[in-house]
Specification:
281 residues; alpha/beta; 2 domains; four-stranded mixed β-sheet; 10 strands; 23% strand
Length: 281
């Protein structure tokens, strides 16, 4: 059994909040540069160049990439041989989010109650945490700040097996077309297939934490990712919705076994600043 201090988790989460919002991950940054070289539209190339310049300014001047610094979404893999001491895990994570968002001068965007009394919590807590218990004696944390402009264009559809692959393609494409310019394309599209409705939504969000350079390990789903990306590029929405051949940087698909009568499909969209930062404790 390995002891990990709760304060260590707090400090790590605080740093992840700042790093994810200041420094665009290299996989996304490189994808933007490649897209700028390959974009057919002159206006699209100019827009992509501006997005790259924005990321450079954020990194060099230690400021947020975007004014919407998002809701803190954290994927945690906790080794079953870890014992957290000096506090509980959720409290440590929320303390880290508060510390990171306050000390990093990141916009606090959370309201404490969603409908009747939308009062700002003033420290961007509580976070959304997805915890998995895994073998080992380490904790792996992935921070994915999620802005509202892209999150609002996500969705779920309960397909049936008879809809098949073509039904999945149509569902994803319909959500992308409905989103249009609102998620600040070029977007990264996370797709969750299978499980139940909540599992599909979780998978779609988790897919966005995967580097855009990594395909699904299953060849059929890797092919589906490529086919969906090609279909999305053909929409012509383009960078920032101004037209062009780069509407998405990647499509990441995750899947899970499901009921014989089900085929839920969730689509979670991210903007061009698909932010993620990782640490292992």
């Amino acid at each position: 059994m390995r002891n990990i201090e709760a304060q260590l988790i707090t400090e790590a989460v605080a740093k992840l909040c700042i790093d994810a919002n200041y420094y665009l991950a290299s996989d996304v940054y490189d994808a933007l540069k490649t897209s700028a070289e390959e974009e057919a539209s002159p206006l699209g190339r100019e827009v992509l160049d501006k997005l790259i310049q924005n990321a450079d300014i954020a990194r060099n001047e230690n400021v947020p990439i975007c004014q919407d610094t998002g809701m803190a979404v954290i994927f945690a893999e906790i080794g079953q041989d870890v014992h957290i001491v000096g506090g509980d895990f959720n409290a440590a994570v929320n303390a880290g989010v508060a510390k990171g968002y306050v000390e990093g001068y990141l916009r606090k965007s959370l309201v404490a109650e969603p409908v009747f009394n939308r009062t700002n919590t003033k420290d961007n807590t509580p976070a959304i945490t997805h915890v998995s218990l895994v073998p080992g004696d380490k904790i792996k944390l992935t921070m994915c700040p999620k802005g509202a402009g892209s999150e609002n264009k996500s969705g779920l559809k309960m397909l049936v097996p008879a809809d098949g692959v073509e039904g999945i393609k149509k569902t994803v494409l319909d959500f992308v077309k409905q989103a249009g310019s609102n998620p600040c394309p070029p977007m990264v599209v996370g797709v969750g297939i299978g499980g139940t409705m909540e599992m599909a939504a979780y998978l779609a969000k988790k897919a966005l934490a995967r580097p855009v350079t990594e395909q699904n390990g299953h060849p059929d789903y890797a092919n589906l990712e490529q086919e969906l990306l090609e279909l999305i590029q053909k929409t012509g929405i383009g960078p920032q919705g101004l037209g062009g051949t780069t509407t998405a940087l990647a499509v990441n698909v995750e899947w899970y076994p499901t009921h014989i009568a089900c085929m839920p499909v969730a689509v979670n969209i991210n903007c061009h600043a698909t932010r993620h930062a990782h640490v292992e404790l």
